[in-house]
Design goal:
- There is one protein chain.
- Helices cover 6% and strands 52% of the residues.
- β6 and β7 form a beta hairpin.
- By secondary structure, the protein is mainly beta.
- The protein is built from 1 helix and 7 strands; from the N terminus they run βββαββββ.
- It has a single domain, classed as Sandwich (Immunoglobulin-like).
- It has a 4-stranded antiparallel beta sheet. A 3-stranded antiparallel beta sheet has the order 1-5-3.
Length: 106
């Protein structure tokens, strides 16, 4: 399974928990989110609801999730979409970061 990894790094000075919110599926592109850098448990429903937590991330360390985007067999060539993933600090909800992956059908 190929996918895109998202690394959430704690740049703070204390252990923190991060809430992860990711874009959902939109035809003809579907997305599935998984825990860890590869393999892992399907966490799609929690990520798209904005309730998935990366807990106890020590200062200076990081944790990964990854996602896989699949195009429907009838997806037109050139179809593209951005998938935004946001991490929000539990210790200070004004501290957040995001990454956007752009995916196109060839």
């Amino acid at each position: 399974m190929n996918g895109l990894s998202v690394n959430t790094q704690n740049d703070g000075s204390a252990t923190d928990t991060f809430t992860i919110l990711g874009a959902g599926s939109s035809s003809p592109l579907s997305v599935k989110y998984y825990s860890g850098a590869s393999g892992g448990t399907d966490i799609t429903s929690a990520v798209t609801a904005g309730t998935y937590k990366l807990s106890n991330v020590a200062a200076g360390s990081s944790q990964y999730i990854h996602f896989v985007v699949t195009a429907a067999t009838n997806a037109p060539s050139g179809t593209s979409r951005g998938f935004l993933v946001t991490a929000i600090s539990a210790a200070d909800t004004t501290k957040r970061d995001a990454v956007k992956a752009s995916v196109s059908v060839k």
